[in-house]
Amino acid sequence: MASETARKPVHIAMFSGGASSAYVAYKMVQAHGKDNSMLFFTNTLWEDEDNYRFMEEVSEYIGVEITEVVDGRTPEEVFYDYEFLGNSRVAKCSEELKVYQTLTFLEDLRDEENLEPILYFGIGPHEKHRMENLQNFYEHYPLEPVETRFPMVDTYREDIDVKSIIENEWNIKLPRMYDLGFSHANCGGRCVRGGLGHYARLYKVWPERFKEQEEMEERFRKYFDKDVSILKRSGSRFTLKEYREIMDNEGVDNYLDIQDDTIPCVCSFS
């Protein structure tokens, strides 16, 4: 293996389809040049279609193509492979489809292209706990530590309105999930790390997508004969079918403002 000092640095924006990651990607390319930059995207195959539109338009504006890595499985297929339903506490889908794919890609850059990756994340000052988690993760989990940078925390002023810049200066419409009230756009709203408030929002905005997730959960429960669920309520199993029936009886709007204590899944590591 080539020594670390012999590798050429490559600056990689972890491109999630969010406004901050898009802005960080743009500034990264401006600072280091298109030839030394990459936009990296790990596709779970559950992404909302408007995220793809946004990423393509940003990629064209920046002038750097998206480097996309796809495992080939959906999150549901990962659940079957592990005989374990992803939930708000453990998300094997994220580990397999995002984290593992990212680590493999980074090691291939080092071993096959003699490049040293430097990762850029669009995490803001209010998410310093995520920054610390990412720093720790990429320091210890790759074969060699990977440098991570967080310009929204370390470089830019805190009050910068990246959404306004993208829409008004770049003339690129933000992903529709922002306007629809979702806190993040992981897996098109079907993120298993979402909590009660998140899934109430999904049911209100895209009832058919909620139903797909409900049917997926019921298929898994029946196939493995396990009394498991994505959600928990009062520390106990709480299926999406049960939740839907309650929302139908009491009104989905009564559940939209529940403050979930979950976080976006380990996809935040990638």
Question: Could you walk me through the main structural features you see in this protein, from its secondary elements to its overall organization?
Answer:
The longest helix is centred in the middle third of the chain and has 22 residues, at 92-113. This protein starts with 7 loop residues before the first strand and ends in a 20-residue tail after the last helix. The radius of gyration is 19 Å and the shape is globular. 47% of the residues lie in helices and 13% in strands. It has helices at residues 19-32, 49-62, 75-82, 92-113, 128-140, 151-154, 162-169, 176-179, 196-205, 207-224, 240-250, and strands at 8-14, 37-43, 66-70, 115-120, 147-149, 231-233, 236-238. It has 270 residues and is of the alpha/beta class. α3 crosses α4 (92-113) and α9 packs across α10. β1, α1 and β2 (37-43) form a beta-alpha-beta unit. The strands form 2 sheets. A 5-stranded parallel β-sheet has the order 3-2-1-4-5, with helices on both faces. The protein contains 11 helices and 7 strands. The mean pLDDT is 92. It has 2 domains: 4-176 and 265-269, Rossmann fold (3-Layer(aba) Sandwich); 186-255, no CATH class.
